[in-house]
Write a structure and sequence with these properties.
Layout (H helix, E strand, L loop, with lengths): L9 H16 L2 H8 L18 E8 L2 E2 L2 E2 L4 E8 L13 E11 L2 E9 L2 E5 L5 E5 L8 H4 L7 H11 L34 H11 L4 H10 L14
Antiparallel strand pairs: 1-4, 2-3, 4-5, 5-6, 6-7, 7-8
Helix pairs in contact: 1-2, 1-4
């Protein structure tokens, strides 16, 4: 949960995380286009002279989290920019320019995947380097394109972590909102992006997990004196 005053960057951070998740699905350039185009996500401040105008994102997955070893000392970074005159793309289409995935082995970092333009260099399960030319479109990501988990296990590990992220910014509440639609009575521990399975998640807390302490506290904080029941026709 992001908490802070207005204008401190909460939405920017949320959107950056959302774009990283889109890199795992291969839809980051489409997401940028839907957001308003590449200019809507570029840094508006001063830039280094001669440096390419790009959006750069990086995610570092440390092996320690809350004192527990996670076993995923990886880093993934991606840069998105506009087309060059020689590239076959629309004039203002956002394109993936570079990608890089590294894994820390001891005190050194090993590059497992590096993409520069149309050339993708991968290190396979045997440690051998492979070059793939024109294997991925400029609008796609190498992270999503190379899905052979046995041959490229590090890519698969990072992709799975990013796909497991759940980002909740807001939900539709109009008459056609997915939240208002009936949902199946299936044990659902994690809420979907559009919250179409909200009723199932609440019922899971009440019926399957019997763990509603935090939910009850949140309901009481928002609506003092109110109580929520899910999974039963009438209150117990």
């Amino acid at each position: 949960m992001f908490v802070g005053a207005n204008g401190v960057g909460k939405t920017n951070l949320y959107k950056a995380l959302g774009l990283l998740r889109c890199a795992a699905t291969g839809t980051i350039t489409r997401a940028i286009a839907e957001e308003g185009g590449i200019e809507s996500v570029l840094w508006a401040g001063a830039r280094r002279r001669g440096a390419p105008v790009r959006l750069a994102l990086r995610a570092h997955f440390d092996e320690m989290e809350y004192g527990v070893e996670m076993g995923l000392p990886h880093s993934y970074e991606i840069e998105v920019g506009l087309r060059q005159p020689t590239e076959a793309a629309f004039a203002i289409e956002p394109l993936v320019k570079e990608e890089r995935l590294t894994v820390r082995q001891g005190r050194r970092e090993v590059v497992m995947m590096e993409r520069k333009g149309q050339l993708v260099t991968l290190r396979n399960e045997d440690g051998a380097r492979e070059n793939h030319k024109n294997a991925v479109l400029p609008s796609e990501t190498a992270l999503a394109a190379f899905r052979d988990g046995a041959r490229y296990p590090e890519l698969e590990a990072v992709r799975r972590v990013l796909l497991d992220w759940r980002l909740y910014h807001d939900f539709r509440t109009d008459a056609g909102s997915p939240v208002r639609e009936p949902c199946h009575a299936i044990t659902t521990p994690t809420l979907s992006q559009d919250a179409h399975d909200l009723a199932a998640v609440l019922a899971t807390l009440f019926v399957s997990r019997l763990d509603t302490v935090e939910l009850t506290s949140a309901i009481d904080d928002a609506f003092p004196g109110a109580e929520l029941y899910a999974g039963r026709l009438v209150p117990p």
